[in-house]
Each structure stands twice: as structure tokens, then as C-alpha cells.
Write a structure and sequence with these properties.
Chain lengths: 704, 704
Amino acid sequence: MSSAVDNEKILQFLPFSSVISSSFWHKLTQMKIDVYALNDEPVEITGYYTNQSISSRLPACLNVDYSSFENRQVSDAVGTNGILCQGLLQNTNTLEAFKDINKQTAINKCGEQIWNDILSGAALSNPSLLTRFLLLTFADLKKYQFYYWFAFPTLVFPSKILLNDDPKEVDKVLTKEELLQFQQAYDEFKSSYGQSAFVVEKNTELGYKCHPLKELANLKDIMWIGFCDPSSLPTNPGWPLRNLLALLAHHHKERLVGLSILCWRDGVRDGQRRVGSSLLIEIKDVVYPGETDSIPKCLGWEKNERGKLGARTVNLSNSMDPERLAESAVDLNLKLMKWRLLPELNLDLIQNTKCLLLGAGTLGCYVARTLMAWGVRHITFVDNGRVSYSNPVRQSLFGFDNCLNGGQPKAESAANSLRKIFPGMMSRGIDLRIPMPGHYVTDAEEVEKDVQMLADTIDEHDVVFLLTDTRESRWLPSMLSAYRGKLAINAALGFDTYLVMRHGQREPWNPGQVQSEKSKGVMRGALAGRQLGCYFCNDVVAPGNSTKDRTLDQQCTVTRPGISLIASGLAVELMVSVLQHPQGGNASAEISTDAMTTVQQHQQQELEKKEAINSSPLGVVPHSIRGFLHRHQQVLPATEAFFNCTACSPLVIQRYAEKGYAFLAEVFNDSDVLEQVSGLADLHKDIATIEDWDYPEESEGSTD
Amino acid sequence: MSSAVDNEKILQFLPFSSVISSSFWHKLTQMKIDVYALNDEPVEITGYYTNQSISSRLPACLNVDYSSFENRQVSDAVGTNGILCQGLLQNTNTLEAFKDINKQTAINKCGEQIWNDILSGAALSNPSLLTRFLLLTFADLKKYQFYYWFAFPTLVFPSKILLNDDPKEVDKVLTKEELLQFQQAYDEFKSSYGQSAFVVEKNTELGYKCHPLKELANLKDIMWIGFCDPSSLPTNPGWPLRNLLALLAHHHKERLVGLSILCWRDGVRDGQRRVGSSLLIEIKDVVYPGETDSIPKCLGWEKNERGKLGARTVNLSNSMDPERLAESAVDLNLKLMKWRLLPELNLDLIQNTKCLLLGAGTLGCYVARTLMAWGVRHITFVDNGRVSYSNPVRQSLFGFDNCLNGGQPKAESAANSLRKIFPGMMSRGIDLRIPMPGHYVTDAEEVEKDVQMLADTIDEHDVVFLLTDTRESRWLPSMLSAYRGKLAINAALGFDTYLVMRHGQREPWNPGQVQSEKSKGVMRGALAGRQLGCYFCNDVVAPGNSTKDRTLDQQCTVTRPGISLIASGLAVELMVSVLQHPQGGNASAEISTDAMTTVQQHQQQELEKKEAINSSPLGVVPHSIRGFLHRHQQVLPATEAFFNCTACSPLVIQRYAEKGYAFLAEVFNDSDVLEQVSGLADLHKDIATIEDWDYPEESEGSTD
Ligand SMILES: [Zn+2]
Ligand SMILES: [Zn+2]
């Protein structure tokens, strides 16, 4: 339309500079973990800029922060904090994906959207559609390293704007009085429409009046087209003017030449509103791109710190609260498991499960660690030992320092360790000796207190792990867990064998309920969880005083070290499988007369059984797992609760329910009482010979 | 013989007070662990007392210390340190056994021995036979608590000795000149005979002369019977006189009345020898016990601190060097395993095995812990990561503190942790990135250095654990381990599956040796260790660049937490089984087409196979263990080395042996090179279709 001359004044725009509040990253982290998961589709966010800067040393900032994720009406663009802009956030799952995104394609797509909003007139009604932005991110949440790249798409249409003169500050053009009048007109418009662009009309009667852009066609006395200008430079307007000019060039091409633009800057300094540095520019001529595609060229990727087109990074690991960093890092790891592999996994259920670990020895330490890795936050240890020098190499929550000066109490020391591993743990240690059948009680008052404490503690927890070093010390917690209907997980070690089992879980004892029915037989080759036996169900004698007169090597059960890791890992996986099973503790266990069949057979069977046995998303939920390291064998026996069991039978539970501690006191002083109450004694009379138990008797996990 | 009168002067003896040097307990601990094991038969030790005390405030001490365990000639009783006594140490295995020992029976037995030595005259020739003692101990080596009880058996024979007068100090009786003369006579006797009792003759010609006790019968001018007196009381002789009087009463009853006894005290004060406080006592009358058993009554159990007959305890945990305490406590635990369960276990072999752990992630941490529990002292980690916030809940050698400020380097942090657990560890961390096939090398010089470092490190170790988080990062160490003939143990995890395997172990590469023979077929359903494959033997493509463009969840392999404990436990147990196998790395592995048969079948098979397969004392030594937690299955496939393996085949090894880093550089830049060199590429041409690998492909253990 006009050829360039040497001293032509070309209109140039100050690009946006992005500003990301660290609160944005925190919120993104949370959204990634809680909402987006592995979804990397673009999502809508908002940003904002202000036209309030009154210092020309500040760049034109486009800000995003935690509130960017809120669902906001961008049509009400001019809020108290500034002018809202609609943005599109694409958070990739990998750095490679971040890099691989075709940047031109992405910005073109956004440009197309803006162009369509121009063509359709939507942008006339809602000028904030012109200030869309793109934000591309990759959040490396392991390192709290964030990669990001903003684009502020702008259409190259017109391709060049020539000015009549250098931009002038509005207070050089208007009188103070006039400026004040305009200011009032603008405020009125702002409170009515809240839009970031407007038409300024001035007629002699009414003075200044601001109108929405869409009324432009009907207005005659147009003085200026105004827009909220993020720039504070005395020489250049900010980026939003570019797409605004594209809009005007499309809809009001004829008005463009000669048009005056008000770059409205509306700040406060020294308690005074300052609008005088708003710029006025007057368009002398306009150059349009040659005949090209239907959509104008689009550009606007932000340059990085080095002035190159490229992404920026920020690392927040130092600025964030380390405990919260740990919190979300641990959370993320588990969420990844869920997102990727097990969408049906209920992580909250695991996290909220309160676990009581009886014994803070080799098994207790490894079980606690495995629970933590699963996200369990509540772990309580019960142990009455102190950390000794031989412990740390086997008991993974203790170090050499814990052994000094006689050794720290194990339960407390283990609980402290958990918090040193992960500050989010709610861990507690209780120094308590578990009273045992047949272990004569000398201080009855003390023991009664201990029993009460143990019973209360079991009440406060959801799962009880039996990890002590003697068979007898498992009796009381087994009985109390059965009485209170808690899930009990048992792990016991031999030299190179292990037993990991869940006790049959029934409802808490209710005297009104008939619980003392004998077995009703077994359906479909599986036992319901409530039908399963406990650790003592296979015993035909009461747990007695087995620690008496054991030699040094027997006192400390010697096991192949690998065994304790295997048993601990299995014990926790068993608990998690139960928790994730739709029927929880009542999950059935297959009765496998021959657990050792081939993988292929099992795979077939699995299909067949899927209907019959409602398995956990984590697979089968066996009653017990017995392993024999000597030949690397493992069997999964499931056995029914024994009507005369000394620990879980209704006969024993009922006696405890009725007599309370008085019954226990008898048992502690003489374990034969248990055989009487459970009916075992009668059974002994009935049976001449007793079948031998099939497996080598395991010794117990040691807390020594 | 005479009736008691009111003011009769009854001879009373100062009992021994036992003094146990802490060096005694240290030596006992060592003897218990290294020699006695569970043997609780009494063993001979020595103690000593001195007659050198010159202060009456000191008790008559019988001392035992580290030297008590040395084999010493007690006949030379009077040494420079004092008078040696023969003792019998009985160290029980339990506190109960300690308590249960019948104290009267024990002391009677010792009394009988003394009496027999009196009757036989042996005690006349060797008076030290009269000062036997008993020491009963129980060493609770977990708590460094020692229970002990001394007995100084003395025969009540005669039952009462009456004196003419109170004991007199010898310098009140002899002139200075006379005392000096006697002293010279005693010194002569001491240097000739070194006995603790003697006969003092005085005749006018020769002056004083001391004779051995056995010459008593032949001597006439007997002035005194002397003995080295541990007492320094001015009123009472010490305990040894009692049995000496019994000896005299039996052999020289007729001489007893009127006999003078020299209680010889021979000390030094202010640099001056002092013998003047030696006592002289004169026997007025003797009362014998009524006709009783053939053996006189025996007494002499030491009273405890409270003046009661009872045991004493001492706890050395505070006085001992804690690091040495830890050392011996850890040692003891392993020794107990050997003593009680596996006498053929070679613990030294394990302790001296140098283990290199490639990867200090979940697997690396648990493997290291399990190795420590087995007594391994040399552990080196290789990892190039830093500890991040998500690590500690899964990686058991790290805590929250290790994550702060960007995280400590993992290898070093893990190595430090081991020493905090057990100061005796020789642990090291190497921050090194293992170069991988197909991962283009940008800084060749750096990578060449890393390769050299890795090769040197593998050379310095005996066992290489492959625990990194990608398949490709296992290639170089697999190849180098094969080249150097090291035992390689591999552990890899899937979400709920694991693979633990040993690589076939052959001799270090020797170009002169023909190694490139193809399989010679399999004998007896088992493969020798050298015939077994490696991790890559089942692959039909070279390890490539699999980490490229993995999403967040794939980058960090997500596994059920229990899996890593199970795999780590199994990996270490596999290593220990190999080490303990008579054929070591060449131990055969059964080829089990159906590893899942019943326990019963296996038990039968085991008997049958005992001859065929020379199993480790720890049981079978499988080639690999594949576990599937979903159904709690485990199989033990053994596969033969693949002639075209990209990692362990002679073709690849030979190329490396010839070209060194130049070959590796090619591989790092393009993994196809491996397919060429190994012959896989040719094979691909030959085979139209490739059978699918039967098991779900496992992902790898993560160090993230
Ligand atoms: Zn039961
Ligand atoms: Zn191989």
C-alpha cells in the first residue's frame, strides 16, 4: 500500500515476559499426581498481566501461579489483579516428549484458534480471546526440576504498521482535567464490561465514553481504540496490541489508517493513581502480507535467558520445604504404580491402614520398611528389648549408634528411624513385654497393665503383625486380634524356612452372635477368610514355656539372613493383597492339596477360577505361604480354623470376654488352663495317637 | 581330743576374694566363639594369687585374666607374678544351666580330687594341687553380661585348730639378722623348687634351710611349715593353709600339735622388700570330724557382694570398645549358625569375599544389608545417581537427611551407611556411570576412563552383583565379569515378578585356551556352572537404547515393594550357596523342565540326586529363580550358555581381549556391532521366525 522510506517509524511491540510463581509448580505437581496422572493432553489454565506498572524498568509480565488452575471466567478479563488471559498447558510425561513437540505446529494451532475467533467476531465480543498463551512443561518430580516454554501467539497481520510520529504520553496530549474525565469514563466501562480493549468516543455533549469493541461498527466519534497495555516503555506498546490490530484490520480495515491507539497504563505510585504515562500512537500506514495461506503467519515463542528460542528450567528442590518434597516424591512413586499398572489400586486405603508390629527385630524392621514403601503412614512397634551390637547388621532400622551405652529401647528406636527415613511417618514405639502362657507372673499388677496396654493398642490399629521371637508371645496378640476382629499377619522363621500367614479374620466378638458353630464344610476348593485358621490352629498342645533352658543358639534363632527379607516382603504383600481384595479379610484362600503345579497349569486354572475366586487386583490371597530355601520350594496351604484352637476358638474368646484378665492370669501361670478351656484336653483323651505335623516345625523370627 | 574352753583361740582363715580382669572376659568370649562353641564341658584354666601384699586393707585375691587360658605348668607354682593355681572353668550355654548346676556336687567333686591328691601323696610333691579352684560362668555375649561364681574348695579336716596364742609377726620373733638369713634360705628354695609350701629346718651348723614338703618325713629339726600366704591380715592366715593342714593332718598327724606355721608374706614397699609381717602361728590342739564318710566335707563357694552365697555378674558393654563389641557380637551370631546348624559352613570364605554392587538402589541397598548379615566385610557400590526424596522409603541405606541439598551421591552415601551400621565394614562408593551399548558416547576420553575404572574394580572383587536399572547397563559388567572369570549375580524386577540368577562362571579369559567350543550336550539333567548362560544368553537381539523416550513411570520401574526384598534375599543366598558349594562357581544346576512339583516328590528326588548333584550345604544352587508374586509361583530354569550371546560368548570376549576399548567404543555408539561380532546377525538371517520367550519380560531393578 505504501513503500517504506528510510526514516519510517515502524510500530514495534514489547513481548511478554513470563513470570511463574513457585506456587504454580507446586500446584502443577499436585495436579499431576492427583488429577492428570499420565494424561498429557493440553488443559486450560489462566494467566494474567497488569497494566499497572509505572516503572519502565519492568518488563511486560505474564504471570501464572497456583490460581492459574482454577476455573475462571476469562470473559471478565480485568479483575483486581490484572487482565486474565486464557492459556493452554501441555505437561508432557518425559523430557523427550517435551523436546519432540513441534513448536511451529503448536503455535500455529493456537494462532488458528485466535484467527477463527477474529473471523467469527467472537474476539470482538471478548477481546481476551486475543491474548491466548501456550505453556509447555515437563515436571521431573523426582528432582523437582521443571522445564517450560511459553508462547504468546501473535498473528503477523498486518505485517507492518507505520506511525505518524513517535508514541506520545497521554498527559502530554490531554489536560489534567481531560485526563481525569477520561479516567472516569474508563472506570465506568471497566466496572460494566471488564474488558481489556475498548473504543473511546468523545462528543461535545457527553464528553468521553468507553464502549465495548463490538460496538465499534456503530460508533462515529471515535477518538481512540484503547487496550490495557502491559508495557511501561515510553516508546513501545505491549504484545496484546498485535492481535488487537489483526482484529481491527480484519473487521475495520478501512478505519486503521489514521487510527489513534490508547495504550492504557493505569498504575499507582506514592498512593496516587498514575495514568499519564499511557501512550498514544497514531497509525500512518499499514502493510499487509502478500497473498498467502488463509491464516496469517503466527509467531511468539518466548526466548530464554540467553536470548535464544529455547526452553527454560527451574529447580525448586532447594526452595521447597524438604519434608513436603519428600512427601510428594513418595506419593508420586505410588501413584505411578496405580496409574500405569493397577488403576483399581486403592492407595488411600493402604495409606490409612494403621499397622501394629509386635516385635522390632529382623522381621519387624523389614516389615516396617516394606509398609513404608507401600505408603503406610501409621506404624507402631511393640518390643521390650534394647538394641544390641549384633542387631544392626540384621535389623535394618538400627545403626551402631543405637547400641551404645546399653542400647536404646528397640521399639522407640525403630519408630524414630522411620521418621528419619521419611518425616511424614506417624510412628510410635511401645516398650512392653508381651505376657505369655505358662510364664509365671510375679508382678500381677504390672502384667495386667501391660495386657491392657496391648489390648488398647490392638484396638487402635487395623492390622496386627506377629513378629516376635517366641511362639508363646504370639498367643495373647493372636487371641486379642481374634477377639477384636483385627487382621493378623504372622511371620515366623526357621533356619532356612519361613511361614507367612494371615489369621482367619472374623467380626469382632459379639456375645449375642452365634460364633461357636463348628465347620460347615468347604465349598469350591476354597475357604472364606473367616473360616481360616490362626497360627495356633494346627497345634494340639497349648503354647507353653518354650524359652526356658534354651541354649544360646536357640535363644537367638539363627536364620539364613535372606530368609527374613523374603518373609517380610511376603508378609506385607499379603496384607496389601487382603486390603485390596473386594472382600478384605474375608477373601477366600484356595485349598491347594498340591500347590506345586506348573506355571502353565496355574495359568489355565487362573482363568477357570476367576469367577469362582474373587481375587485381589494383586493376585491370589493365600492363607499361608511356607517356603523352604534349601530346595527353593514354596507351598500355599490353607487350613480351616480349629474348633479347639487355644488362641482363636470361640471357647477361648468367650472365656476371655467373660472373665477378662482373671482368665489371662490363670493362663500365664499355667498354660494347661488353655487346654482345658479350648477343649483340647478332652480331645487328648479321645485321640490315642496324634498325627504328626507334616512340615518341619519352624522356629520363630527373632528380635535378638 | 580336747574340749573347747571359753577363751580358746580358734584358727580362722581369710577366704580368697576373686578378682577377674576384664581381659579374662574378652579372652573367654574369644575362646567361646573360636574354640568352645557349644561345648560346656569343664576346661582347665589357671589363676594366681600373691603373697606380696603389704597392706592389711587388701583382701586375699585370687586373680584370673587373659593368661588364665594359656597352658601353663602349675607345678612351677611360684612365678614372678605370684602363685599359680589350677582351676576348672565351666562355661554354660544358658543362664538356666548355670543356675541348675548343683553347687554342692560340683565342689564335692573338686574336694574329692584334692583329697585323692592328699591320699596319694601327689599334693606332697606338688602342693599347688591343694589350691584348686572352680569357676562357673555364663557369658551372655549379646549383652556382654557375664555371670560367674568362684569356689575355693577346702576340706573340713581337721574340723578345728586351736592356737596357743594369737598369731605373731615374724619380725617380733626373729631378729633382723635371723630374718635376713631365713629370707636367703627361702629365696634359694624358691629358685630351686618354686613351690608354695615348704618345710623350714634350722640347725646350728647350716642355719635355715627350706625343703620341699615331701621331705618332711625325713627331716628332724623342723622349725616351721611355711606357705605363701595371700592374707595380709595381722590376725589370720589365708585360705590355702586349710588344705595344707589337711595334707599334714593326713600324712603327719603326729606332728600337728605343737607345729609352728609360717604364713610367708613377701612384699615390697617403698622399694624395700618387706617380709616382717609374715605370721607365725603355733598349733595347740586339733579337732577332727567325727567318723563320717571317707572324704571330708568340702566347702568354699565364694559369697557375693551382698555377703550371700550366690553368683556375681559383670557387664562389660560399657567398658569395652564399642566397635570391638559390635565386631564380636556380629561374629558370634554367625558362629552360632555354624556351630548349631551347619558345621561345614565356611564363614571365613564368606567374610573374605569382596562384593561389588553395581547399583545402589532398592536392590543394591537390600543386597548390601543381606551380605552384611552373612558377615561379608568388603562391599563396593557403583552408582552415578544422587539420593532423591522418593528413595529412602524403598532404598534401605538412605534417610531423609541424605536427600537434602540436591542429594548425596548414592554410592558414597550407601557406603557410609554400611559403616554406620557396622563400623567393621570395609565399604566404598564409586560415582560412575556404566557405559551402555547404543548410548552414543560424546566424551570418549571420559568414558574410556570409566570403563577402565569399572574393569579394575571388577578385577579387585570376587563377586559382581548386577543391580542396575536398565538392561543395557548390565551388558558391560556382564561381559567384563565373564572375561575375568568372576561370579556374577543378577537380580531384576518386574512389577510383581523377579529374576535372580547366577551367570555361568568360567575361568578368566585365556587366549591360549580353547573356549569357543559349542555345547557338548548336557549330562544327568544338570548343567555344570561353567556351562550356564548369562543374563543376555536368552536374548536374540543386542541390548540397545531402551531408556530413550520412556515415560516417567517407565523411567522409574515401579515394583511391588515386597518384590525387592525377596529378590535381594534370594540373590545373596544364591551367592552364599555358590561359595559354600564344593565346586564353587562350577556348581551344577538342575535342568528342571517342571520345577513345580510337590514337596514330597522333591524330598524323594533329593535323596536320589544326592549322589548325582553335589549340593551345597545350603541346598540346591539353581541357575536362576523366577518368581511371580501374582500367584506366588517360583520356577528354577537352568539354561545353557548361548554360543552367540552378546555378552558372554567367546566371540565377544575374544574381540574385547584383542581390541579393548576400541571395540567397546564401537558398541557404545552402535549396538548392532554386537550382533555382528556375536554372530547374532548371521543367525537372524538363518532363522525365519524366532520363538517367543516364554516368560513375561521383566523390567529391571530401579535405582531411582
Ligand atoms: Zn486358631
Ligand atoms: Zn551370555
